[in-house]
């Protein structure tokens, strides 16, 4: 069987991550790099919304333009100090076992009251989506909160695009989990924010990761992509210093989205020649 060719991997990072990713993608489009042409587009959490638009063939310049205006339908989430400490405890409890960490995260989602209802969360998800049709070459990454296993939800999973993106972005203690197919689902990016190794079967992989830091004993996105680079040609975008300054600690703050999108556009320009060489190779 011939090896699969090109994958695009989009990581989690809140509403500012959505904007930053869209800025990079629109900037790449202006260079003549059309990421929607990839054979597979994988999105985790925030990246699941961007990925859905990208895979649908939606005009990503227009999508980026949307990010330059504050979305008044967006519900601002806040990860309280208590919730952050509970996440820390999950990493301590799980150690080097990713699925054990995810099960601990699942327990948080069972015991901590989410900040909005599932109905409200679905409304937010729908407001972020440019289509409700599930694209063929798209997958949303989510986790079974009871087993800790990571899954890629595709068109063949028998769920709606709204459900898949809600599952991918169900941050424990912030947003509600969602149930379908007999499983309770939580955010796919709590242990690996971008899950680049899910694209290990592809010859060439472009990764955009708003939150690349590794936590506990888990590898960073840079370390994961270094491992992936042993078998695939890779290109990785992580926030530069300007983006970090723009976003700060407010990844769920919709007011920071416009500047985050511009930061993504500008950052892509700084590596124009390198990314063109990668994409055209």
From TrEMBL:
Q: Which residues form the PNPLA domain?
A: 8-201
Task: One Pfam family, please name it.
Answer: Patatin
Output the Gene Ontology terms for molecular function: hydrolase activity
The GO biological-process annotations, alphabetized, read as: lipid catabolic process
Q: Which UniProt keywords apply?
A: Hydrolase, Lipid degradation, Lipid metabolism, Membrane, Transmembrane, Transmembrane helix
Positions of transmembrane segments? 7-28, 34-58
From the Swiss-Prot or TrEMBL record, give the protein name: PNPLA domain-containing protein
**The organism of origin for this protein:** Secundilactobacillus collinoides
Species lineage: Bacteria, Bacillati, Bacillota, Bacilli, Lactobacillales
